Amino acid sequence: APILSIRDIRKSYDNGFEALKGVSLDIAEGEILALLGPNGAGKTTLISAICGIARITGGTATVAGHDIARDWRAARTLIGLVPQEINLEPFEKVWNTVRFSRGLFGLPRNDAHVEKVLRQLSLWDKKDSKVTELSGGMKRRVLIAKALSHEPRVLFLDEPSAGVDVELRRDMWRVVGELRREGVTIILTTHYIEEAEAIADRVAVISKGRILLVEDKDSLMRRM
Ligand code: ADP
Ligand code: ADP
Predict the structure, then answer these.
(1) Distance between CA 46 and CA 4 in Å, rounded?
(2) What DSSP letter does each residue of 146-215 carry, written as one string?
(3) Which residues cross the membrane (predicted)?
């Protein structure tokens, strides 16, 4: 069974604008899927809907059999989300940011796991720094570490390359590769075809709230 199953998801915002017009997708465990589309296509809305942040107005999303609307807590615990905007507590230390995030999911303390993700993101020597003391790139690394704090089985990355330098981008791609080897399923949004090409197994092209095409990366690239 797919780890993520999305059926006919619709989302209308309060102003009546329908940002998702019936989206369906199945994602296999361990797969890396790129949601590729221009600005305004509905990528962030779709991720927010799947993660239970944006209330959907139709359809269903299930994570490992847990319906995101009816069984939010169980579903959300399986998901890590790296948002586009930096939403960190500025005066918290890096170490505590990751540790407390894990605690929010009701999980027992696991310093070994916190250390692992901080090292994985080259943040170990910053563990005692306050978030406010970090550069923008380091803050992005903390966002990823935070999303991995509770050992999610599915990781969402919303426009991971937006405003990121070459070194961090390369590092993120390395981390994505490591996570996939650990069996983590990854969904990222991007408007760069090069990024989809570099890391995805499958690409879903989204435009105006609809999925136009879902294809293996290799067969898509042969046609470009
Ligand atoms: P993407 O991530 O692909 O750039 P978004 O999901 O952010 O696209 O936005 C999809 C569409 O929904 C856009 O046309 C955007 O203007 C609209 N939209 C996003 N948020 C809201 C909102 N809170 N209210 C109304 N429309 C919104
Ligand atoms: P508290 O007393 O609030 O539980 P901690 O003992 O978790 O605080 O952390 C105090 C400081 O020690 C943190 O800022 C962190 O940098 C550091 N620290 C705690 N545990 C570890 C660890 N396993 N490895 C490295 N540093 C740690």
Answers:
(1) 13
(2) HHTTT--SEEEEESTTTT--HHHHHHHHHHHHHHHHTT-EEEEEES-HHHHHHH-SEEEEEETTEEEEEE
(3) none
Query: 192 C-alpha to center of ligand 1: Å?
Result: 18
Q: State if residue 93 touches ligand 2 by the CB under 6 angstroms criterion.
A: yes
User: pLDDT digit string (tens) for 12-40?
Assistant: 999 999 999 999 999 999 999 999 999 99
Tokens standing for 65? 């059999």
Residue of 45, 56, 187, 205 to test ligand 1 pocket, by largest number of atoms within 8 Å of CB: 45
pTM confidence score = 0.92
Residues framing ligand 1 (Cβ under 6 A): 13, 15, 17, 19, 37, 39-45
ipTM over 0.85: no
pLDDT tens, position by position, 78-136: 999 999 999 999 999 999 999 999 999 999 999 999 999 999 999 999 999 999 999 99
Nearest CA to ligand 1 atom 5: 42
CA gap 192, 207 in Å, rounded? 14
